[in-house]
């Protein structure tokens, strides 16, 4: 009588999980091989700022200029960045405990600060929520994890995965979360800003063209 033996699952793959198809394997390898590159024109890097204990981020619009603002919620309080200059324009180190994190309310919002005081800002991150992943003129932002848990952020103009065009020409690997947990990634509602937040930092890119937005106003000092 022939004795049947149970084959062990390949190392690194849970038993019962199907093998990747040749197409899936090729796509995964393509993503793994793509190095981090600068975002293409008209995008430019604005800031990479360390924010310890970052929980989430959200977008708002300046009530006077209309330019994008990014609110950051962390264990150390709330902060507000000008998304065009990278300047931190407001800081609250001791927010009300009932509003210190967005999970305290059903719509995942926190009270605005600085020029957006009196409003509430939707926050995406550790507690849920999300940011825009497309713009009206065809830019797409995606988060992929071909080597989970290290997630990668892809910017493209080719309609998104599977990215038939060449890397660096129609799609760009602009961020790799190697050391920190990704919290949120997306566009501002205006489509002029890309934000990527991890548990330890925030990165911003802008495609603003107004010269008035290219530098912080004279005499401004970062809140402490």
Notes on the protein architecture:
With 224 residues, the chain is mainly beta. 5% of the residues lie in helices and 36% in strands. The chain is built from one helix and 14 strands. It has one helix spanning 22-33; strands at 44-50, 54-61, 68-74, 77-82, 88-92, 109-111, 120-122, 124-125, 140-147, 150-156, 171-177, 182-187, 193-198, 201-206. The strands form four sheets. Strands 5-4-3-2-8 form a five-stranded antiparallel sheet, with no helix packed on it. The longest helix has 12 residues, at 22-33. The termini are far apart. The relative contact order is 0.20. Residues 1-6 and 211-224 have low confidence and may be disordered.
């Amino acid at each position: 009588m022939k004795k049947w033996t149970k084959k062990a699952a390949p190392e690194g793959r849970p038993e019962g999980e199907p093998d990747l198809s040749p197409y899936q394997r090729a796509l995964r390898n393509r993503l793994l091989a793509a190095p981090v590159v600068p975002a293409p024109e008209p995008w430019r890097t604005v800031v990479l700022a360390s924010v310890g204990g970052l929980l989430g981020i959200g977008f708002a619009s300046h009530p006077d200029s209309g330019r994008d603002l990014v609110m950051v919620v962390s264990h150390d309080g709330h902060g507000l960045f000008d998304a065009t200059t990278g300047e931190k324009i407001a800081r609250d180190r001791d927010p009300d405990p009932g509003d210190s994190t967005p999970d305290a309310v059903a719509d995942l919002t926190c009270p605005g600060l600085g020029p957006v005081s009196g409003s509430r800002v939707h926050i995406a991150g550790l507690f849920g929520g999300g940011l825009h992943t497309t713009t009206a003129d065809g830019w797409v932002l995606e988060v992929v994890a071909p080597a989970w848990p290290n997630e990668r952020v892809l910017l493209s103009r080719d309609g998104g995965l599977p990215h038939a065009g060449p890397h660096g020409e129609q799609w760009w690997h602009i961020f790799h979360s190697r050391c920190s947990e990704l919290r949120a990634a997306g566009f501002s509602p205006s489509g002029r800003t890309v934000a990527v937040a991890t548990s330890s930092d925030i990165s911003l890119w802008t495609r603003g063209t107004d010269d008035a937005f290219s530098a912080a106003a004279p005499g401004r000092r970062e809140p402490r």
